[in-house]
Amino acid sequence: MDVIEYLKGVYEAWIDYPKREGTVITDKYRIQQFLGLGSYGLTYICMDVDSGQEVVLKQAKPSKGKVGRDLLYREIGVLGRLSHPSIQRCLASFEYKKQLYMVTEYVKGQTLEDLIFERGEVFSEQEALRFVRRLMEILSYVHEQGLVHLDIRLPNVILDGDQIHLIDFGLASHLGEPIRAKFGSAEETTHREIAETPNDLYAIGHFILFMLYSGYNSDNFEVELNSGWEDELTVSPLTKHMLRKLLQIDPPYTDPQQFVRDLDHWLNQ
Ligand SMILES: Nc1ncnc2c1ncn2[C@@H]1O[C@H](COP(=O)(O)OP(=O)(O)OP(=O)(O)O)[C@@H](O)[C@H]1O
């Protein structure tokens, strides 16, 4: 690494350094906990001191400059179009000391990633398909609004009691738009795919595999997920059929409702 790159890294880490707990933004949002540093934002749990409500505050990463702001503006625009009990509402957006912020509802509960990998939750085939059927209701709503989520993954699905929430609309695109790869990722400049519902269905296929592998005894989870799930998992022929279509091994579902019909058929048999 040359000296310039090194100094740039040090400078970025310094300007992106998370704010301390207790810091108050615009006299209204008191920072309670830093949640994480994403590809273009810093996210905190805050207390809205006026309403006493816990909210999530996302700040565009200062080091990403205009690009970070544009991506956060985009996410604000996407959330503004959505109104669904399982999707966090955008409560406000504002500029403060030349920084852009977005305020959304705080979703309590645990991500599917934490449930499976930290708490060791195991999902049977039926439980996994029932869960995904409910997730498809949320996703169908998103698709009906002309959007594709493009980041359906275990950490972006939260279970709060019996309620499922879908979060992280940072990559969401309008149907037919060219897909932007995750900011800073290796494919950033090479991705040319168009955003379509099968992109989300493909991710749903992987999502189901992760849920089904929760009951699989092995030390080498990742490797096996990418290789022989058809040999390793014992699932019904219809589940295998659905997975092969979702994962585009067989001709994919062109309409998500075809998948929902197959799911309903499985669940009602
Ligand atoms: N509304 C929310 N309620 C609860 N937790 C949230 C909410 N929004 C984000 N989080 C959590 O905050 C953390 C940071 O989220 P954020 O979307 O900023 O970045 P990321 O998802 O980690 O990265 P990237 O932006 O690169 O996808 C994640 O752990 C996420 O689960």
TrEMBL record:
Domain Protein kinase: start-end pairs: 29-269
Keywords annotated in UniProt: ATP-binding, Nucleotide-binding
Single Gene Ontology MF annotation: ATP binding
Residues involved in ATP binding: K58
PROSITE patterns named in the record: PROTEIN_KINASE_ATP, PROTEIN_KINASE_DOM
Protein name listed in UniProt: Protein kinase domain-containing protein
Organism: Paenibacillus glacialis
